[in-house]
Design goal:
372 residues; mainly beta; 8-stranded antiparallel sheet; 4-stranded antiparallel sheet; 1 helix; 28 strands; 38% strand; disordered N terminus
C-alpha cells in the first residue's frame, strides 16, 4: 500500500472510530450531548470528549446550510440572513452575513475555500436569490434574483469550482433548473424539455441543502416529496435530461418524502427523509442505491425518526451519518442498517476529504465530530 493509501485508510478508521464512539458517549437524556468544555474535554473527567462537540457561534439562527471545506474551515448559512465562517476548526466563528439580508432565509451554502462561497436564499419570487463572495464574506455580490413569482428555489450543488446547479419547485409542471458555468457569478435557466413531469403536489424540501446533490463531473440527483410517491430524479449531463425513480420512503402528504441525499460516487447513494412533523411517525426513513439511483431499496433497519441530512464518512465505502431534530444515526454497512448514536438536534451534516465531519441546526448549533 502506498503512503497516501495508508494515510487515507488511517483517516477513515479514525473517523469511523469517532462515529462509533458516539454510541458510548450517547447521553441518557433526550436532546443532550456529552458535556464538553471549549477545548473539547469532558467536564467530569478532563479527558478528550468523543462525539459531537458544540462550537460557540454567538447566534440563535437556524443553520440548514453547511459547507465544510476542511478540518479548519467551514461555512454555515441560516435564518435571518445569517452566514458564519470559521477558519480555526470551530473555536471561533465570524459573522460574515451579507448587509441588508436580515429578511432572507439562507438554506444552502457551497464553499470552495476560505474566501469563496455561494449562498442560496429561498422563498417565492424575489425571495429566492443567489449571493457570492470572493473575500471571505467581507463583501457580497448578488448573482441571481428570481423574478418569476411561480418559482421557489430549494437547493444548490456544484460539480467543481465552475459548474453548478440550483433547483426550483415545479413551474408549469416541471422542476426548474438554474445553471452556472463561472463559479456562481452568473446563472441561467436551463430548458425543461428533458425534465419529466412533476407529480401533483410534488416539490423539493429546503431542509438541509441536500435536495440537490452531485458526484463527479456530470451526475446530479434531485429529491422530492409531497406527491403520491417520493421520487429521486437523476441527470448524467449536468441537468439537461433527467429520469425519475420511485423511492420506498413514504410520501402522499406535503410533509413527507425524501429530504436529503448523499452519493459517495456516481453509483452508491443514500436517501433519508420521512415526515417532518413532530407528532407523526417516519417509518422507512432511509433507502439505498447501488446503481446510481435507477433502483432504491428500503433500509432493513432505518433511523427511528425523520432525518433531513446525510453524509458519507470520508474515504469509507460503508459508513455514513444521518441527522435530524431528534438525533444522529450511524450506518457501517452502506445504509442498510442504522443505529442512533446521539440525541442532539441537527438539520444537516457534511464531511471533508481531510477527515472532519460537521453538523448544524437550530438555535445556532454547529458541531464538529471529535474523537480520542
Amino acid at each position: 500500500m502506498t503512503s497516501m493509501g495508508k494515510t487515507r485508510r488511517m483517516m477513515s478508521v479514525g473517523l469511523i472510530g469517532a462515529a462509533l464512539a458516539l454510541t458510548l458517549a450517547a447521553p441518557a437524556r433526550a436532546g443532550a450531548t456529552p458535556a464538553a468544555a471549549a477545548d473539547g474535554r469532558t467536564a467530569e473527567t478532563g479527558a478528550a470528549a468523543t462525539g459531537w462537540h458544540l462550537t460557540p457561534t454567538g447566534t440563535d439562527a437556524r443553520f440548514r446550510g453547511l459547507a465544510a471545506v476542511d478540518r479548519r474551515t467551514a461555512w454555515a448559512a441560516g435564518s435571518k440572513g445569517t452566514v458564519l465562517r470559521t477558519t480555526d476548526g470551530g473555536r471561533s466563528w465570524r459573522n460574515v452575513s451579507p448587509p441588508g439580508a436580515a429578511e432572507l432565509e439562507f438554506r444552502d451554502v457551497e464553499a470552495f475555500d476560505t474566501r469563496r462561497a455561494v449562498v442560496l436564499a429561498i422563498g417565492e419570487g424575489e425571495a429566492s436569490r443567489v449571493l457570492r463572495t470572493e473575500d471571505g464574506g467581507a463583501t457580497w455580490t448578488e448573482a441571481f434574483r428570481n423574478t418569476d413569482p411561480r418559482a421557489f428555489y430549494d437547493c444548490m450543488t456544484f460539480f467543481d469550482r465552475r459548474h453548478g446547479l440550483a433547483m426550483s419547485d415545479p413551474v408549469d409542471g416541471k422542476y426548474r433548473i438554474l445553471s452556472t458555468r463561472d463559479g456562481g457569478r452568473s446563472w441561467k435557466v436551463l430548458p425543461n424539455a428533458g425534465m419529466p413531469d412533476a407529480l401533483p403536489g410534488e416539490a423539493g424540501f429546503a431542509a438541509s441543502g441536500q435536495c440537490l446533490v452531485s458526484a463527479g463531473p456530470r451526475d446530479v440527483w434531485l429529491a422530492t416529496g409531497g406527491g403520491a410517491t417520493a421520487r429521486v430524479l437523476h441527470s448524467a449531463d449536468r441537468g439537461l435530461t433527467w429520469t425519475a425513480t420511485v423511492s420506498p420512503i413514504p410520501a402522499g402528504d406535503p410533509a413527507r418524502g425524501v429530504f436529503g441525499l448523499a452519493f459517495r460516487d456516481r453509483a452508491h447513494g443514500i436517501a433519508v427523509g420521512g415526515d417532518y412533523r413532530k407528532d407523526q411517525p417516519s417509518p422507512r426513513a432511509a433507502a439505498v442505491t447501488g446503481d446510481g439511483g435507477r433502483t432504491w431499496r428500503a433500509s432493513a433497519t432505518p433511523p427511528p425518526a425523520y432525518r433531513s441530512g446525510v453524509a458519507w464518512l470520508p474515504h469509507s465505502r460503508s459508513a455514513a451519518l444521518a441527522v435530524g431534530p431528534t438525533g444522529t444515526d450511524l450506518t457501517t454497512d452502506g445504509g442498510r442498517t442504522w443505529r442512533t448514536v446521539d440525541t442532539g438536534s441537527y438539520d444537516t451534516v457534511d464531511c471533508t476529504r481531510d477527515g472532519s465531519c460537521w453538523a448544524s441546526g437550530e438555535k445556532g448549533r454547529i458541531a464538529r465530530l471529535t474523537g480520542r
